[in-house]
Structures
1.
Amino acid sequence: MKSSQVLRFFSPLLMVLGLARTAAWAEEKPVTDADLARWIDKRVQERQPPAADKRFDEIGWAHDIRTALALAKEHDRPVFLFTHDGRINMGRC
Amino acid sequence: MRAGPLSDKKVIRLLNAYFVPVYVSNEEYRDGGAAPPEERKAYTRIYHEAIQQKRHNGTVCVYLVAPDGKGFDSLVVSKAAEPGQLQKMLKAAVARLKTKEGKPLIKPTPQAPPPKAEKNELVLHLVSRYDHRGSWAEFPAENYIVLKQPDWEKLWPSEDAKPGATWDIDKEVAVQFLTYFFPQTEMCDFALATRADGPYKHKVEQLALHAKLLARDGKSARIRLEGTVKLKHKFYPGRDDSSRDANSTVIGIVEFDASGKKPSLRLITNQAIYGDQKFSVALRSLP
């Protein structure tokens, strides 16, 4: 393949990469005072945990072991006890 | 576990339909922990029962206890987190006990709710996460920080400040939230997370938060924040990994409305890196 053909073949890809770089560069520009609130709020929103990261919350957890044992006896169900380090609910574990 | 089986819809369905699920943090249940003595006694009994019966046991472990209070199965987390293992264990328990399917006995609720705070306190919610995914980056870390009124009042510009005026935010105020600007790490002691004498040797090495008054009208004010924070925080407790620095540049906004009551604060990392891994933080005040 000649160099001109190589260039022609890859030019759409190079264009996409170039645009992506330009977009990334644009993203790095200091945000203006006028745009600040909108710019910050968009990123704050984007960084909130999505529902998929909160499936842990879909489980009906008992408050403590004694509550779980009492409910187990009352409703004839086994207790599922998970012991862990840190704070799994906060993602600091 | 949270990113694996405890996010698996089949496991969640089994737990809600057939079990009474409960999770406890070891730091609450060890000697001197916040859990009441009777709670600690219940934990210890289940743990010792597993040892006596030569079942899986440990501090990071899953235990199954029958309705009569007797433990009958257990699995250390390294095994329970393997694909399919926890589901298999739960199904076997249901078959063994002939447990009837039903609705969750406890209504599922958010497990990381905001702390109770006084009306004049400013509650901040922080989300921190690696930019990549997988392993420790599978879900975000969260923190709540409560700023007391004398502290959030220090975000206020001086009485004579006019738009364009600049100043530095009190470091003793800024450190209260910037100290959490690090991603998820192996955290065995949440209460000691930011203590210099704790297992993570946590230290705020450098911090600066500059403010610029953008607008002011009576009691309302809009303030731009920009700054940097450099932390030391070991990834593994007690291990020597001194290269684990968390360096962030941050940008944010504080808005006081005309009521002059507590402000709205939003602050994000513009660039942040922990060791050689990028991460992002979003901090926002709750209404």
2.
Amino acid sequence: MSDTSFVRTEMLPQKAPPSTSVGIIGWARANLFSSPVNVVLTLASLYFVGYVLTSLLPWVFLSVWNADSLTECREIMNETWGSTHGHACWGVVNDRWLQLLYGFYPSELYWRVNLTLVVTLAALAPVLFAEKTPRQMLWLTGAYPFLMPWLLWGGSIWNPVVAALGFVTGYVVYRAVSEIAGSLLAVVATVVAALFWWFVLAAPAAALLSDIVPLTIETVESRKFGGFMLALLLGVVAIGVSLPIGILLALGRQSDLLVVKAMCVGFIEFVRGVPLITLLFVASLLLNVFMPPGTNFDIILRVMIMMTLFSAAYMAEVIRGGLASLPKGQYEGADSLGLNYWQAQRLIIMPQALKISIPGIVSTFISVFKDTTLVSIIGLFDVIGLSTAIRADTSWNGIYWELFAFIAVLFFVVCFSMSRYSMYLERKLQTGHKR
Amino acid sequence: MSDLISDRKIDHSKLQVSDEVAIQITNMNKWYGSFHVLRDINLTVNRGERIVIAGPSGSGKSTMIRCINRLEEHQQGQIIVDGTELTSDLKNIDKIRSEVGMCFQHFNLFPHLTVLENLTLAPIWVRKTPKKEAIETAMHFLEKVKIPDQANKFPGQLSGGQQQRVAIARSLCMKPRIMLFDEPTSALDPEMIKEVLDTMIELAEEGMTMLCVTHEMGFARQVANRVIFMADGQIVEQNEPEEFFNNPKSERTQQFLSQILGH
Ligand SMILES: Nc1ncnc2c1ncn2[C@@H]1O[C@H](COP(=O)(O)OP(=O)(O)O)[C@@H](O)[C@H]1O
Ligand SMILES: [Mg+2]
């Protein structure tokens, strides 16, 4: 039959798909039992998951909650189930959870930590969910870097105010100088003025102001900081500060200015070339050698700086990857419209480069957050340090799993949230068709 | 390649060339490393001129028009655009760029911004136009390129022809006095080429000074008042379109035309 000529006389209506390809059965058929190999893999996986759950669930749920020591736990287990094997002793978490969360922070001041957490979330909201929050909340975000340390460490309200005034001073100087001189000179003058304010004028100004209007809350020393709160504090600071520094480093690495480029490359490669723990030891021991004797450079601040620099180096490389994947046409499009370098970066290049880099950026965030546990090695009592301390207590000597499980859950909640947020953000920023 | 691409009637009485010089290029040379890509370019463009630049691939057409808004830097000679000489002075460069519009082969729209945001971005940030006014201007030009209903879509959701028209509108929003086109239709399907060319013809009728690298010889015949043929980084021949197509002088031009017109 040679029937090459054909004309359709009737157009076909849309039909529903066959029932074997929709619904749960259709889904299972397509995804779990599509071929003999797939059937075997599905069954083997189901068996494995079942095996793990049948040992894990009883350990978690057939467990002792009310006990003041491991010995007491074991007695209760023996009474109830006739064996101590396969049952968790959550008594330790029940007994010490406040310490695991707050470290040695004075218990009558826990509210300040809680308030800080609320303020942190409120300050993050306009950044994370820009279109769902009122713009006025950005004021809180702006005040946050000054408000947060004051709430946690306490002292005179004038300290953070005076610190913030350093930025105001810088801004005023910048505006004044850039009117009469070039932009480079203005930047230099700004930095000099701000540093002069912070290192020379700030302390007397704060003292004077608190003499006039004493507004002081109780001071809490750094050595009392600990527990999961310390991890959150270090994580928030390192993450929040390393992103902008990382952006600048990434841009610096691409710069035409040879000195800037060399400095950025040198910094990035040095920091990525040494383990974080050595940087932390430098922070805890070595910096004292370089400081003038008698200066008290807060240990937590030192650790913050090191963790920030460390993650900034990684951030820079992640962002550089995003920058490299942008087509050259985007730079040319921006240039041809007359946008200057910083406008092009801010409006065209960075939004796209950062969007491409979201998975890498969030991975860096997550690993920085988990790396905060390393501070236990230089003697800070974060959750890991505390768990060791708790085991040193005779009543909880020998308890490992329950403490680590609790710590794991704390970290998992935060890290998983970050991961989900990054997926949400990627979906939200998705424009146009994927080809 | 088709000869007459547009069936549109062109009002030739509107195509006026003034005596005022818009672009003056004298003895311009450029190298990429040791490769002499542009050799002794001399070109004067008066206001209102529509110039089509043709030539084989790699002959330096893109490089030449990209020198005019300093996307590429020339090493010797002089380029004066609208009375301002292009030097390494950043202020001059930004000024010239904001007055010279450019359309690229691959549109170079900003995919993370909507069509409307693409159009208002430069007026707001470079010209400091109030947002409301910038939006009005943007809508005006979107209507002109006949896609006002796409204002709130993202570039990735438009067809190639629509994207190129958005790109033209984006340049027009800066109220440029000169427009540069670098193969604006080369990445488009045939049925979209016409809609872009129509937009460009309209621009010509409004007296825009245009430099256009293109292989659309129909467009060149109908709209250009001068065709420039480049080869090996040099201007080999230039003439009025009639003369250029019917009576090419140099051998290189004849060879090129016979290839491109398929004679
Ligand atoms: N960035 C660059 N570096 C080195 N050579 C280049 C660069 N850009 C273009 N060239 C070379 O310069 C010549 C002219 O390029 P171009 O102006 O793009 O040609 P056309 O647009 O006429 O096809 C080509 O041989 C090309 O390979
Ligand atoms: Mg080209």
3.
Amino acid sequence: MTNARILVVDDEPQIRRVMSTTLVARGYMVSTARSGEEALDKVREERFDLVLLDMNMPGIGGMEACRIIRSQSDIPIVILSIRNAEKEKVEALDAGADDYVTKPFSMPELLARIRAALRRAPLASSGTPDVLDLGQTVINFVARRVTVNGTEIRLTPKEFDLLRYLASNPDEVIPHVKLLQAVWGPDYGGEVEYLRVFINQLRKKIEPDPSHPAHLLTEPWVGYRFSPSKKGSGTV
Amino acid sequence: MTKSTLPQSVKVARILGALGIVGGITFFYFRIFSVNNVTVALSFLLAVLTIATRWGLIAGLVASVASMLCLDFFFIPPVGSITIADPQNWVALSVFVVTAVIVSHLSASAKKQALESTQRQNEMERLYTLSRNLLLLEVHGPLAQEITNSIAQVFELPGLAFYDRTSDRIHRAGPHDIPVDAGKLRDTALQGTVFHDATTKTTVIPISLGGQPMGSLGIQGSQVSETALHAIANLTAITLERAHAQDVATRAEAARQSEELKSTMLDALAHEFKTPLTPIKAAVTSMLSDSDLSPTHQELLRIVDEETDRLNSMLTDAIQMSRIEAGQLQLHRSPQPLRRIVQAQLEKLGENLEGRTVTVEVPESLPPVSVDPEFIGIVIWQLVTNALRYTPPGSPLTLRASAEETEVIVSIEDCGPGISEKEQRRVFEKFYRGKDQRDRIPGTGMGLTIAREIVRAHHGRIWVESEPGKGAKFSFSVPRPPREFLL
């Protein structure tokens, strides 16, 4: 995908330079911001397709900026950070990031991650219904809309793709790797913590009782399973 | 404290007083108001009783003898003469004397007891005040002098000397210097026996805790009982010990903080260095992905790329080391299939394998282990990287895992030059580098230490087996959890 608009947020000028040069050469339209605050202003003023967000910046910092952007928009966010501890990755994903890349990174790898974040999973096989009614929760796969008790709730593109992939294979245990590759892309497979965080966020949004999920079920060791049963929803 | 002796004048005054009272009674009954002899005798008895109670034995005895004489001379017939011929008079005298003795004795002992209990109460109050003062003392100040001042002040002592054995110094307090020399104080501290000098009224008492001599206290004056003295010595010992314990704790805390600061600085520094590495890596990999490059340029850029990676891995080592040393190795354990951890690490190593064939023998049936996948990943990565570093490109590597009864063992076997027996013992030491490799092969000497610390945190073992010339085999184990933990 070219001419997608990318916002590069980093307090290091050299990183902004190398990113602009490379991304522009690849056909992306690039805008840069020096701080979290500036990034928030730019996101409000212009429309972007992706934000590359540095974690460690003076001021509000990447984590907080990510949280604020996510509260206002579903735009894909890729975090860039020097820290590679699992704790920080999970924290960033919890804050709403779609992906987490450790610095220093190789450019081909980052480009692959950018493509994965921009990619919308293709519509599932013809066997999937357009609308799935789970009782309280209704998922419209065509319009990419989810309503819970009649109110529309917002899902990020990756959250939606994950839900759609699981829902189009009901009652089937989907292994971690398969799920990651279907939603993020073929370069993924080891990022089991991504699934953990995203499934948790989905549960909070669509499950009547997120701590006792009825639809998004964990299959220990293996993966996840979607159960379309309306049990407990009161409208059986 | 013993009862202080009364001045001579008071004694004389009391005797004269006793005689005066007896005279007064005699005058009253003889001249003014005549009654029968029994009443007179009873009045004398009452007077002897009162005098013995109030003024003590001597005055009581004087009063009883005088009473007997007066009774005999003025009242008992034949009036006007002292005849003790009559047995009745002997009885009267005996009654007076015995009464005086018994009553004065009783009263004196009651008085003494009352005085003693007041003194004990007084001492208890002072000991309580002292213990409170000592507890509130700031242990980092001039503690020994403060203790001395506090004791002297609370017990209102004229002179006090405290010998502190730790500093071998003598601290004095009170208005007078007590006549005890340093030698006596030191000897008492070491011998552990109380020394008392009656002529100078000084007492020296040892201070010790748990049989360990800590010093001695010299006190002048006899106003403090021996029990209280021992209590003071114990309080002093406890205060010194408390200060000592706090001192040790403070020092340990300071050492820990300095270690933590070092680790924090190392961590910050390593992260600082990674910042400029990021645009270098991004730029060089970006250029390398350009297909128009000449072979020369491609080779040169590849060198930049590889060296960037090396610098990065050294910084990663430093960061891991600092995390481990700062005691931040917090494991998040969960049951993990080792196969996946191994696979992920080998994928990460990718091109660094330099054409080596890595045989992975991790059976599917291997039971899961309860580990932190991130850190066990680091151990595998470090061991494989170590093998890659010291073996020629193209030589094979074998990564094996097997389940024993109580543990799961992972080993990485190479076909490199091997490690001599002497060096085998040292390879896990921090910054240790093989003698022959020190100058030839780059490395930080931290990798194996990091691996060892992580394995230890998992309660596992790490070791190396090698025969020089035939390769080396590094192994580590992690305990197998009981079955029920995994279900």
